[in-house]
UniProtKB/TrEMBL annotation:
UniProt protein name: homogentisate 1,2-dioxygenase
Family, similarity comment: Belongs to the homogentisate dioxygenase family.
UniProt keyword annotation of Nucleus present: no
Family matches, as InterPro entries: HgmA_C, HgmA_N, Homogentis_dOase, RmlC-like_jellyroll, RmlC_Cupin_sf
Catalytic residues (UniProt): H193 (proton acceptor)
Any matching Pfam family: HgmA_C
GO BP: any one term: tyrosine metabolic process
Cofactor requirements of the protein: Fe cation
Pathway: Amino-acid degradation; L-phenylalanine degradation; acetoacetate and fumarate from L-phenylalanine: step 4/6
Residues at which Fe cation binds: H237, E243, H278
Amino acid sequence: MGQDWTNARLLAHSGDAYMKTGLAVYIFAITEDMKDARAFSSLDGDMLIIPQQGALDIQTELGNLLVRQNEIAVIPRGIRHRVTLPTGQARGYICELFQGHFRLPELGPIGSCSLANVRDFQIPVAAFDGTLQNGRACGNNRQWQIVSRFGGRLFSCTQGHTPFDVAAWNGTYYPYKYDLARFCVLGSALYDHPDPSLFTVLTAPSYREPGTGVVDFAIIPPRWNVMENTYWLPYYHRNTMTEFSGPIISNQDESCKWNQGLEFQPYGASVASAMACHGASNGEHIKAGDQATEPQKVGTEGFTIFLLETECPLSISDWAIQEFQVDGQTSGILHKTRPSL
């Protein structure tokens, strides 16, 4: 059976959408366009869309966004949209933020041109779904089905006109997209491994105290390592933040082995709960200790690791626990089986 944008599955969550606290993480696997005259919106929170593979053509009330591999998009709470597939099947992740909004992190002493820059975010222009008749804008009106997520559940209603009837708009509440290849990576030039906060693209501060966040979205992209006589990998460690991480295929060449499904497990992702020990494997540790530390370009394999770091404890959904079973045992590594959406 075909799957469209409305069939995303809840993977993990924290807090309460009704109380506007916390967040949720969904995964999606789309095999077909949304039906004609059908639109979707989340009333629970802002949606950070992270494609793992494939492209999404998103028609929103405020204009259109073409979101390709290695790009992200944010659709604010309540903005109606319709998703189609310009290049075939697509899959990926959604971080739904119940609390506040995504924003750029405070740069402090880092400066004005580091990490993600305002000028590189792309915002749609109004795209009216209709025609001009005798100098008047007439919408492409027919019976539309509006599917909405509210409290984690899907509801639908019908209306007799297109939701994409905005001829012009202004304001600060709008969808946008960002090409992750434009991210200006920072790193250590002398010793030690830089904290993951240096890789933060977007953040949602909790404002409980300085430095806290409902969620930080970070990436580990291609970059130069130039540290000398020091250990390059993150040390085996524990965090007060919960970490959800997974890969994004950044190489868009169809001949790339990742895009052909070779040596790549769809939905490969992991969760490290707060204060849970995690880090590189023993084999990776030995390799890192033996390698030369002259400058090297790293992260060029054709995929980028992203992280969702949250101060909220993530609870794995019942569906995810049921799907990610190996020989009757629940696995902490979520890439053991592929979910059947």
